[in-house]
Protein backbone atom coordinates (compact mmCIF):
# COMPACT_ATOMS: atom_id res chain seq x y z
CA UNK A 1 0.00 0.00 0.00
CA UNK A 2 1.42 3.37 -1.00
CA UNK A 3 1.96 6.42 1.21
CA UNK A 4 -0.81 8.19 -0.71
CA UNK A 5 -3.23 5.37 0.05
CA UNK A 6 -2.34 5.68 3.74
CA UNK A 7 -2.98 9.45 3.61
CA UNK A 8 0.58 10.20 4.75
CA UNK A 9 1.48 13.85 4.58
CA UNK A 10 5.22 14.70 4.76
CA UNK A 11 4.32 18.09 6.25
CA UNK A 12 2.98 16.33 9.35
CA UNK A 13 5.20 15.25 12.21
CA UNK A 14 6.93 11.94 11.43
CA UNK A 15 8.67 9.45 13.75
CA UNK A 16 11.47 6.93 13.45
CA UNK A 17 10.61 3.64 15.20
CA UNK A 18 13.12 2.37 17.77
CA UNK A 19 13.31 -0.05 20.69
CA UNK A 20 14.80 0.25 24.17
CA UNK A 21 15.49 -2.90 26.17
CA UNK A 22 16.12 -3.27 29.90
CA UNK A 23 17.35 -6.76 30.88
CA UNK A 24 17.87 -8.04 34.41
CA UNK A 25 19.84 -10.91 35.89
CA UNK A 26 18.70 -11.15 39.47
CA UNK A 27 19.17 -7.68 40.97
CA UNK A 28 21.59 -6.46 38.27
CA UNK A 29 20.63 -4.49 35.17
CA UNK A 30 22.41 -4.84 31.84
CA UNK A 31 23.48 -1.40 30.64
CA UNK A 32 25.41 -0.07 27.68
CA UNK A 33 28.20 2.46 28.23
CA UNK A 34 27.75 4.45 25.03
CA UNK A 35 30.77 5.13 22.83
CA UNK A 36 31.10 7.43 19.83
CA UNK A 37 27.65 9.07 20.05
CA UNK A 38 28.47 12.72 20.67
CA UNK A 39 26.78 14.19 23.74
CA UNK A 40 25.81 10.71 24.97
CA UNK A 41 29.39 9.42 24.90
CA UNK A 42 30.32 7.82 28.24
CA UNK A 43 26.74 7.72 29.53
CA UNK A 44 24.74 4.57 30.29
CA UNK A 45 21.50 3.40 28.71
CA UNK A 46 19.53 0.25 28.11
CA UNK A 47 20.20 -1.55 24.85
CA UNK A 48 18.31 -1.00 21.63
CA UNK A 49 18.15 0.66 18.27
CA UNK A 50 16.14 1.04 15.10
CA UNK A 51 13.29 -1.20 14.02
CA UNK A 52 14.12 -2.45 10.54
CA UNK A 53 11.54 -2.64 7.75
CA UNK A 54 9.53 -5.84 8.12
CA UNK A 55 10.31 -6.30 11.85
CA UNK A 56 7.90 -6.16 14.72
CA UNK A 57 9.03 -4.16 17.76
CA UNK A 58 9.57 -7.38 19.75
CA UNK A 59 11.67 -8.93 16.96
CA UNK A 60 13.75 -5.73 16.80
CA UNK A 61 14.22 -5.76 20.59
CA UNK A 62 15.43 -9.37 20.51
CA UNK A 63 17.76 -8.67 17.57
CA UNK A 64 19.26 -5.53 19.10
CA UNK A 65 19.79 -7.28 22.44
CA UNK A 66 21.59 -10.17 20.76
CA UNK A 67 23.69 -7.87 18.53
CA UNK A 68 24.74 -5.55 21.35
CA UNK A 69 25.25 -8.09 24.15
CA UNK A 70 25.21 -11.67 22.86
CA UNK A 71 22.25 -12.40 25.17
CA UNK A 72 18.68 -13.53 24.79
CA UNK A 73 15.95 -12.63 27.25
CA UNK A 74 12.32 -13.22 28.11
CA UNK A 75 11.03 -9.76 27.15
CA UNK A 76 7.75 -8.05 27.98
CA UNK A 77 6.46 -4.92 26.25
CA UNK A 78 6.06 -2.28 28.99
CA UNK A 79 5.47 1.02 27.22
CA UNK A 80 5.88 3.56 24.47
CA UNK A 81 7.52 6.93 24.49
CA UNK A 82 7.22 9.63 21.85
CA UNK A 83 10.44 11.64 21.80
CA UNK A 84 9.79 15.09 20.40
CA UNK A 85 13.11 16.24 18.98
CA UNK A 86 11.72 19.68 18.17
CA UNK A 87 11.71 18.89 14.47
CA UNK A 88 10.59 16.12 12.18
CA UNK A 89 11.25 13.26 12.45
CA UNK A 90 10.94 12.46 16.11
CA UNK A 91 11.38 9.04 17.69
CA UNK A 92 8.71 6.47 18.52
CA UNK A 93 10.23 4.25 21.21
CA UNK A 94 8.90 0.79 22.10
CA UNK A 95 10.21 -0.17 25.56
CA UNK A 96 10.78 -3.74 26.76
CA UNK A 97 11.81 -5.20 30.12
CA UNK A 98 12.79 -8.75 30.98
CA UNK A 99 15.08 -11.38 32.43
CA UNK A 100 18.18 -12.74 30.71
CA UNK A 101 17.80 -16.40 29.78
CA UNK A 102 20.80 -17.41 27.68
CA UNK A 103 23.93 -16.37 25.84
CA UNK A 104 27.45 -15.23 26.62
CA UNK A 105 27.89 -11.56 27.45
CA UNK A 106 29.98 -9.63 24.92
CA UNK A 107 30.15 -6.00 23.92
CA UNK A 108 29.36 -4.74 20.43
CA UNK A 109 30.05 -1.70 18.27
CA UNK A 110 27.71 0.55 20.28
CA UNK A 111 29.75 0.38 23.49
CA UNK A 112 30.68 -1.69 26.52
CA UNK A 113 27.92 -3.71 28.20
CA UNK A 114 27.99 -4.60 31.88
CA UNK A 115 25.78 -5.94 34.66
CA UNK A 116 25.21 -3.13 37.15
CA UNK A 117 23.81 -3.93 40.63
CA UNK A 118 20.58 -2.00 41.32
CA UNK A 119 22.22 -0.19 44.25
CA UNK A 120 24.98 1.17 41.99
CA UNK A 121 22.69 2.69 39.32
CA UNK A 122 22.53 6.09 41.03
CA UNK A 123 26.32 6.40 40.90
CA UNK A 124 26.50 6.13 37.10
CA UNK A 125 26.08 8.85 34.47
CA UNK A 126 22.79 7.48 33.13
CA UNK A 127 20.90 9.10 30.27
CA UNK A 128 18.44 11.51 31.86
CA UNK A 129 15.30 9.49 31.13
CA UNK A 130 16.65 6.12 32.32
CA UNK A 131 16.02 6.58 36.09
CA UNK A 132 12.46 7.78 35.41
CA UNK A 133 11.72 4.88 33.07
CA UNK A 134 13.18 2.33 35.50
CA UNK A 135 11.07 3.78 38.32
CA UNK A 136 7.92 3.56 36.19
CA UNK A 137 8.73 -0.03 35.18
CA UNK A 138 9.48 -1.02 38.81
CA UNK A 139 6.03 0.25 39.82
CA UNK A 140 4.30 -1.94 37.23
CA UNK A 141 2.61 -5.15 38.31
CA UNK A 142 1.87 -8.25 36.22
CA UNK A 143 -1.17 -7.56 34.09
CA UNK A 144 -0.70 -3.76 34.06
CA UNK A 145 -1.25 -2.14 30.69
CA UNK A 146 1.83 -0.70 29.00
CA UNK A 147 2.46 2.96 29.79
CA UNK A 148 2.49 5.81 27.32
CA UNK A 149 4.90 8.74 27.68
CA UNK A 150 6.16 11.81 25.90
CA UNK A 151 9.67 13.21 26.20
CA UNK A 152 10.46 16.74 25.08
CA UNK A 153 12.91 19.52 25.78
CA UNK A 154 12.29 23.16 26.63
CA UNK A 155 14.17 25.99 28.34
CA UNK A 156 14.15 23.97 31.60
CA UNK A 157 15.69 20.93 29.94
CA UNK A 158 14.26 17.44 29.58
CA UNK A 159 10.61 16.76 30.40
CA UNK A 160 9.17 13.26 30.62
CA UNK A 161 5.39 13.09 30.96
CA UNK A 162 3.53 9.83 31.55
CA UNK A 163 -0.14 9.54 30.57
CA UNK A 164 -2.42 8.80 33.49
Summed up:
The protein has 164 residues and is mainly beta. The protein has helices at 57-69, 130-139, and strands at residues 15-25, 28-34, 44-45, 47-50, 71-83, 90-103, 111-117, 147-154, 157-162.
CATH topology: Nucleoside Triphosphate Pyrophosphohydrolase
CATH superfamily caption: Nucleoside Triphosphate Pyrophosphohydrolase
Main pleated sheet:
9 strands, mixed
Structural class: mainly beta
Topology:
Layout lengths: L14 E11 L2 E7 L9 E2 L1 E4 L6 H13 L1 E13 L6 E14 L7 E7 L12 H10 L7 E8 L2 E6 L2
Tell me about this structure.
The chain is mainly beta. The chain has a single domain, classed as Nucleoside Triphosphate Pyrophosphohydrolase (Alpha-Beta Complex), CATH 3.90.79.10. The chain has 2 helices and 9 strands, in the order E-E-E-E-H-E-E-E-H-E-E. It has helices spanning 57-69, 130-139; strands at 15-25, 28-34, 44-45, 47-50, 71-83, 90-103, 111-117, 147-154, 157-162. Strands 1, 2, 3, 4, 5, 6, 7, 8 and 9 form a 9-stranded mixed β-sheet that branches. Strand 5 and strand 6 (90-103) form a beta hairpin. The chain is globular, with a radius of gyration of 16 Å. The model has no long low-confidence stretch (mean pLDDT 92).
Write a concise keyword list for the protein shown above.
single chain, 14% helix, 164 residues, mainly beta, 9 strands, nine-stranded mixed sheet, Nucleoside Triphosphate Pyrophosphohydrolase, 44% strand
